Amino acid sequence: MEISFEDILKLEKMFESSGMSEFRLETGDVKLRFRSADYCAAPVAVAGNVTPVAVQTAGAAPAPAAVKAAETGEAAEEKGVVVRAPIAGIFYRSSSPDAEPYVSVGTEVKKDDVIGLIEAMKTMNEVKSPCDGVVTEILTENESMAGFDSPLVRIEERSV
Questions:
Q1: Which CATH architecture has domain 80-157?
Q2: pLDDT band at residue 144 using 50, 70 and 90 as cut-offs
Q3: Which SS3 state, helix, strand or coil, does residue 2 take?
Q4: Between the CA of residue 79 and those of 28, 87, 112, what are the distances in Å?
Q5: What is the SS3 assignment for 9?
Q6: Rounded to two decimals, what is the model's pTM?
Q7: Can you tell me the mean pLDDT for 130-143?
Q8: What angle do CA 112, 116, 120 make, to 5 degrees?
Q9: DSSP string of 42-105?
Q10: DSSP 135-154
Q11: Does residue 137 surpass a pLDDT of 50?
Q12: Nearest to residue 129, comparing CAs of 82, 87, 90, 97?
């Protein structure tokens, strides 16, 4: 079954007027998902062999690597494991405003160490390191919105 862009727009309008909080459609190699604003995520549509692209939101500063890649016309080659947000919400680097951050650039981490928190629906969710290594980059600012699967930190994998 093929779904045109116009079909997706019609489904989106029907979803918005329905009052539903989430809608999913999977048929063949087409997967379509809409979530309400309560989930802090925009509608998502994925079909077949789609190549992901970086999207910059209004008012957001582009990441330095993205600027460098755009200026030189080269793809930025990044090394390490990117820890991504398991849920959409507010990313916190520490347990309280006056506490030290869980991790900073250069911090050695072990697998399952807490590297930050994501607040979603008034619940604090721990984000844990997937491996042993050293934090090489902080990719999301403290107390900023992180969408589902947003990059939070980069870890250079190694034995600690």
A1: Beta Barrel (2.40)
A2: very high
A3: coil
A4: 34, 24, 20
A5: helix
A6: 0.53
A7: 93
A8: 110
A9: --EEEESSPPP---PPTTPPPPHHHHHHHHHTPPP---SEEEE-SSSEEEESSSSTTSPPS--T
A10: EEEE-S-TTEEE-TT-EEEE
A11: yes
A12: 82
The residue type at 134: V
Q: φ and ψ at 69, to 5 degrees?
A: -65, -40
Q: Find, among 99, 38, 122, the residue nearest to 114 by Cα.
A: 99
Calpha distance 57→63 (Å, rounded): 12
**Whole-angstrom Cα distance, residue 152 to residue 139?**
5
Whether 56 shows a pLDDT value over 60: the answer reads no
Print burial letters for 96-131: b (CB count within 10 Å at least 16), e (below 16): eeeeeebbeeebebeeebebbbbebeeeeeebebbb
Say how many residues make up the chain: 160
Spatial CA neighbour of 91 closest among 80, 81, 102: 102
Q: Where in the chain is the domain with CATH 2.40.50.100?
A: 80-157
What is the spatial distance between Cα 72 and Cα 101, in angstroms, rounded to a whole number?
34
Written as one letter, the residue type at 48 is G
Higher pLDDT, 149 or 57: 149
User: Looking up tokens 């582009």, which residue turns up?
Assistant: 62
